[in-house]
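Morning run. Coffee first, then this:
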Amino acid sequence: MNEKIDYKVDLKNKNILIIMPKFYAYQVKMKEDLLARGANPHFYDEEPEKTKFLILKNMESIFHVKNVFGKFNRQLTQQILAEAPAGGYDYFLVIRGNVLSEETIIELKSKVLKDTGKSIYYSWDSFENMRHKGEIGKLFDWRGTFDSVDARASELGYELLPLFYSDEFDASRLSEDSSQSHSKESDILGAATTYDYVSISAFFPFRYRYFKAFKKANPDKKLYLKLYLAPSVYRGKKLKDPKLVKDLDMDIISFEPFTPEQIRETVRNSKAVLDLAHEQQQGLTMRTMETLGIKRKLVTNNIYLKEYEFYNEDNDLIIENLPAKADEAEATGDYSAFVLPGAQWLDKPYAEDEQVRQKYSIHSWIDNLFK
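And here it is:
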């Protein structure tokens, strides 16, 4: 794990202002990379009170309340101004920026960004899911998105920059021997078992519906399909939509969250990953990138995967029209449309292209952000 990294961008002694949401452990991974380069990153959370912010967003959309995030923007601006390093920042990076006002961005650029500094915007959500619909990008020197459709459609010159896999999912850094098989995480997940297909993700009704269908259609395969359903969410759904959570298949549902180590060990001890994105999602998920990094085969419902250079039919399978297939299966009892490939595809050697794979590491991703 001490492999020397060939950084393409020199960020030594560069002061970097970053405003972004806390998204799993990815903020931590970014910070580790930047510190290893000798940079001085200063992170600020875009949504420090997620429940409160959700309520405010609902007030804005339902009751048309204006400037609901005005107080937050003012407080964040004052905090950043007070804590800015002497001489200012060399880079100003915003990721998503869903609740930031234009006034906040303009003021920070003028007061804490050096005259020679660079402002960068990156969207790791589709424009349609954000309040500003991607228009915030016009305020920055460079703008990128993880969504290939948004990159093509935008008139603001967005560049396509897919997400990344962290070192924990880098196959070249992971020993394939059994030295880790006795770790706590591995023991919990039964690392001695090699699964044919695994999938660990958050509970959504569409995923639960498809997981049940895949389970019914593939009794001959070793599946590990898990959805994390937070107890608080479960209690809420029991009150609001009791039919949805009645007689849940507890072989699929987990009320305990999974750690990144548990997810990695499960994927590491699998032949393929089943990744079911939101029905309308266009950009590739982080799980897709992690599957590439760890060199496991992928089955996904994201039709846009074919647009990427690493797509390979020997490694990747796209399944389309799952809503219609589920309707048909539930009406007829015929779940054959959910049968997953067997040994002929699963056991075929993984088609490797190391030069391409390395382009999607977190280190390459940060190089591209700051190039």
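Residues 15-161 form a domain with the Rossmann fold fold (CATH 3.40.50). Good start to the day.
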